[in-house]
Amino acid sequence: MLELIFLGTGGGRIVMTTQMRWTGGIVLRGNDTQIHVDPGPGALVRALDLGINPQKTDAIIVSHAHLDHYGDCQILIEAMARAATKKRGVLLGSSSALVGDEQYSRIISNYHLGLLEEKQVLTPGSSFSIKGIKITATPAYHSDPSTVGLVIEEKENGARIGYTSDTAYNQSLPLFYKDCELFILCCLRPFGKPWKGHLSTDEVIPLVEEVKPSLTVLTHFGAAFLKANPEKQAKIVEKKTGIKTIAATDGMSIKLEEKEIFLKEKIDTKEKKEILVKKTGVIATQLTDFYSPK
């Protein structure tokens, strides 16, 4: 079984600096391992708030060298290294993040690199395996040219998760996410409002139509997307594609078991509860849905 926990669903400078949505990335747990993907600002605190122990993290993945994807990387390296008391853990990331280039300085200090057991630069097609989970880098088309997306596969059960990271639309993208039952897309902008180097709702639609996942999850929302109502944007994708689509929420978790996907949404504010009451007639602290893959 694989579980994903969203420690943030916000993206872009406005949302990151106001924390209109959290920006802590995604934690993946399964096969007795814990992996943190794109730990942006607030990742450590959000993890602790949700009862996730960052000292149990075995690997950190940074898709590219933009702050909303790596802001808490170094403090999480210290946590992964058991409060910097032992050399431990793996760091995977784009060349811009781990090495640096003319446009971006390396995001990790020599001190923090010294706390790691291993590090690896991810380029499209490269892969890394840890405790039965295989991580393969996919191409992305972003202002940081070394940005990578991910396909995460549990070898034993064959569960496949696709994660686009930040990318512009490209006709080739669906080829790299074939057979992903869960497809997570960083969708910064709403329908009809494209932004260079990022996906908008209308650009998500042809990708989902070709990949044909069991469940599509939109995340990494910019301010304009939040203003346009994420749930409505997800419904547009679902109506056009015929594939179940949701807008991720902060604290949400998704569990992938054999031929089943479970969704649990964290609901912790009065406003959210009132919305739920209007929709279902029931006040709840957790909303759980069940999806069966096709």
Widest beta sheet: strand line-up: 6-5-4-3-2-1-15-16-17
> How many DSSP-defined strands?
17
Structural class: alpha/beta
Q: Stretches where pLDDT falls below 50 for ≥5 residues?
A: 269-294
What percent of the residues sit in helical stretches (DSSP H or I)? 25-40%
For this structure, the CATH topology is Metallo-beta-lactamase, Chain A
Radius of gyration: 18 Å
Biggest beta-sheet profile: 9 strands, mixed
CATH class: Alpha Beta
Q: How many independent structural domains?
A: 1
Q: Based on CA inertia axes, which overall geometry fits?
A: globular
- Taken in chain order, the helices and strands follow as EHEEHEHHEHHEEEEEHEEHEHHEEEHE
- Give the strand content: 25-35%
CATH 2nd-level architecture: 4-Layer Sandwich
In whole angstroms, the N-to-C terminal distance is 18 Å
Mean pLDDT: 90
The named CATH superfamily: Ribonuclease Z/Hydroxyacylglutathione hydrolase-like
Number of helical runs?
Answer: 11
Structure description:
The model is unreliable at 269-294 (pLDDT under 50). The protein is globular and about 50 Å long. The protein is an alpha/beta fold and 294 residues long. Helix content is 26%, strand content 31%. The chain has one domain (2-291): Metallo-beta-lactamase, Chain A, CATH 3.60.15. It is built from eleven helices and 17 strands. The chain has a nine-stranded mixed beta sheet. Strands 7, 8, 9, 10, 11, 12, 13 and 14 form an eight-stranded mixed beta sheet that branches.
